[in-house]
């Protein structure tokens, strides 16, 4: 009778097994999302540091403001930027 009782202790019923799979799946999905976000931010920072010209055409990025200025320039919000046509 003891042998049967030991086997019963080890055996998980369906509900417990389902809870374990849900917990492991949730942790895996959250870990994947955090890892992907960190990797994307690292890659973007790396590409910005190396002045990658292909960033403008990258469809996975959303560019809201583009400011082109010489290295060391400062941006002031009180001065309007005027686009100069190089043909003039």
Properties at a glance:
single chain, mainly alpha, 2 helices, 51% helix, rod-shaped
The shape, in one word, is: rod-shaped
> In total, how many beta strands?
0
Mean pLDDT: 81
Give the uncertain stretches in residue-range form. none
H/E element string?
A: HH
> How would you sum up the major sheet?
none
Q: Provide a count of the helices.
A: 2
Give the N-terminus to C-terminus distance in angstroms. 99 Å
Please give the share of residues in helix. Answer: 40-55%
Secondary structure category? mainly alpha
Please provide a written account of the structure.
- The chain is mainly α and 88 residues long.
- The chain has a domain at 2-57.
- Helices cover 51% and strands 0% of the residues.
- The protein has helices at residues 2-10, 14-49.
- The longest helix is centred in the middle third of the chain and has 36 residues, at 14-49.
- The model has no long low-confidence stretch (mean pLDDT 81).
């Amino acid at each position: 009778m003891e042998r049967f009782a030991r086997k019963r202790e080890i055996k998980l019923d369906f509900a417990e097994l389902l809870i374990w799979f849900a917990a492991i799946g949730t942790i895996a999905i959250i870990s994947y999302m955090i890892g992907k976000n960190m990797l994307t931010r690292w890659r973007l920072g790396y590409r910005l540091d190396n002045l990658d010209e292909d960033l403008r055409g990258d469809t996975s990025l959303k560019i809201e403001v583009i400011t082109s200025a010489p290295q060391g320039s400062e941006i002031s919000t009180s001065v309007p930027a005027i686009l100069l046509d190089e043909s003039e």
